Amino acid sequence: MYKYDQYDQTIVDERVAQFRDQTRRFLAGELSEDEFRPLRLQNGLYVQKHAPMLRVAIPYGLLSTRQLRMLAAIARKYDRGYAHFTTRQNIQYNWPRLEEVPDILADLASVEMHAIQTSGNCIRNTTSDQFAGIAHDELIDPRPYAELIRQWSTFHPEFAYLPRKFKIAVNGAMEDRAGTLFHDIGVHAVRGEDGNTGEVGFRILVGGGLGRTPILGHVIREYLPREHLFTYLDAILRVYNRFGRRDNMYKARIKILVKELGLARFSAEVDAQWANLKDGPSTLTQTEIDRVAAFFIDPIYETIADVNADFEKHQLENKAFARWVTRNVFGHKKPGYAAVTLSLKKTGVAPGDATDAQLDAVADLADQYSFGEIRVSHEQNLILADVKKADLFAVWQQARQIGFATPNIGLLTDIIACPGGDFCSLANAKSIPVAEAIQRRFDDLDYLFDIGDIAINISGCMNACGHHHVGHIGILGVDKHGAEFYQVTIGGSQGLEAALGKVIGPSFAQDEMADVVEKLIKTYIALRFEDEDFLDTAKRIGLEPFKASVYGKKSGHSSSELANV
Amino acid sequence: MSSIAYIIRDGAVVADAWTLIPAAKDGAAVALPPGKLIVPLNVWLAQRDALLERQQALGIWLDSNQAPAELADAINRFALIAVNFPKFTDGRGYSIAALLRSGYGFKGELRAIGDVLRDQLFYLQRVGFNAFAVRADKDIHDALTALNDFSEAYQGAIDRPLPLFRRRSTMASAS
Fold first, then answer.
1. Domains of chain B, with CATH numbers?
2. A509 - beta bridge partners?
């Protein structure tokens, strides 16, 4: 992974000193609340319901064990012994004290970490595929480009006060595990104009996003030669910075500008700006690409057989292990290796939460079995990317001891959820109790496996941190006359065939939600063809049978076809 | 006489000899007092000939929703261009400054005016401002120190066009 040199280290150290002084001046009354707000937000610090919340950047989700242990130590020293992994591969602390945040940032800087631009109206942490570098379907390793974008965006002086937040995701695989269609800018690493042959370059998408107005990104450039990456991004950002709406925060994202101008006009504006910047000093060099790429070379894999007899035997003998392998083990490009997803979705624990002891234990696992690295997925789970198949049984046993071996990756209980109304001051409604009620309702593992792949995504408000629009079943907290209600969508999906879910009807009270999900699932089970998954079934049968199952005759359709449910 | 106003220019606190003419609905109706003036765009557009006949160094200011293109043909007539920040969180002025410097090649004094505060000075300097009219209720000497908040920066900008990666590689090959 990327290692700081003296320059990177100086930059984060100077940031700590700057924020320490800003915090001092705020506490001394020299900075007003309004003056301090953007400064603290650009250091990841929100003021929340109970205490400040600090969001720490995990660039493209990659962590060393040294860094993970520091995250655990921070949870212990400055917080209440736990932290929360977010849907953008970051980590949040819910209980730090404002006066101590500069010290936390200093501790982070000591392990090459920071909280820079994890909030605020600026370019946010760059995200990518959690299986980057090891995925069997990878065309180009996106991590060097994600790191280059991290550096370009860090303290970019022109774009620190944008109309609204700005998120960039990079993908280099056949499947899109980075959600690039739902980012302000999506970057696809490709080879040549046809995507397969020739020099590495980028397909650039612009104007995607979830939130209040979910829109899929548009391709603004089919093939951008890689040396032009920064100048082209500069051109897009400059157009957005100058012309994005600032009168209404709900219409301030770049997706609204692209929509209002139309892609053709927006693209022409970008080209006009690019003409000033193209081939200028910010043109990316091969030397720099090579320098950064050298940090992302493969670890020293052993040359081993792809099939491991012990591993096969354990699966035959131990049903629980076999189940875990089915759900939590992901194919690896190297024979004899696999990637393991540690589930942070155990029933009864808020999705994405981990204690300091669990984080330390994961660091131990990674040191012992996976070259000392961990990845964070936007589904809020942790990944050991390079585990020998021969070690999987041992990893499973140890993961079970820390409660991270729930065999539910991609299953119904692997729920994506924002912190919601329990913590977040923006939320209309709680997310965590809804997730837990659903997890408790579906506690039969055989049934969960029978239901198969399904994504339930829960957001506590329109800001869509829980990505509810792209859940196969999406749940959105809404405020109804001061009470917490939940709107349900069906048919959303992420990936290359990304789609936005459709609202099924009036919203539900919190205590109805487990029943509602159960009825939707029963409808699916009754109407699916053999191995057809939820999403395909929903596409085929449409919303009506689902509506009928939860609203009865109110939807105006007979539910007789569900008689055998 | 009113008290002397101070600004930061080229890294030092100096007395300011310019008079800022505030925005006016009708640019043609604004009287031009003697001395070095920084006029709003519509005064320039309405009284261009009169301003050029004054035999005085001329300044103009743009608001954050105005385009540098409005000045394009006359850019070198101005000794000073100021860019207004109605609120410090309105970031349009950063792109306006970068465009004035790199797109239009403006070499004169580029001054940030309006809600100009210490904690934005470093970025303002990077995009091409060399002068800062720090908000009057703030300590300008305190603000001055912010120009040195960082000794390094990743990306190229107006103050240092070569990004770190281009300097890094020369440093590496030199060593």
1. 6-174 (3.40.50)
2. A485
Say which residues have a Cβ less than 8 Å from residue A305's Cβ, sequence separation at least 6. A335, A336
pLDDT at A564 over 90: no
A380/A457 same-domain check = no
Of B95, B120, B155, the CB nearest to A282: B155
Q: What ipTM was predicted for this assembly?
A: 0.96
Domain residue limits at A243: 134-293
A124 domain residue, yes or no: no
Q: Do A161 and B90 touch (CB under 8 A)?
A: yes
Residues A13 and A150 in one domain: no
The confidence band for A482, taking pLDDT boundaries of 50, 70 and 90, is confident
Average pLDDT for B8-15? 98
Chain segment A53-101, per-residue pLDDT in tens? 999 999 999 999 999 999 999 999 999 999 999 988 899 999 899 999 9
Residue A300 lies in a domain: no
Q: Are residues A536 and A436 in the same domain?
A: yes
- C-beta neighbour count of B165 within 10 angstroms: 23
B169–A10 C-beta distance less than 8 A: no
Q: Helix, strand, or coil here: A447?
A: helix
State whether B165 and A22 contact (CB < 8 Å).
no
Nearest to A161 among B94, B151, B168 (CB): B94
C-alpha R_g of chain A:
23
| A105 within domain boundaries | yes
Show Cβ contacts of residue A536 under 8 Å, excluding neighbours closer than 6 positions.
none
- Mean pLDDT rounded to a whole number for chain A: 93
Q: pLDDT value at position A538?
A: 94
A420 and A543: one domain?
Answer: yes
Residues of B in contact with A282 (CB under 8 A): 155-156, 163
Name which of A162, A164, A242 to mutate to probe chain B: the one with the most chain B Cβ atoms within 10 A of its Cβ: A242
> Residue A58 and residue A189: Cα distance in Å, rounded?
21
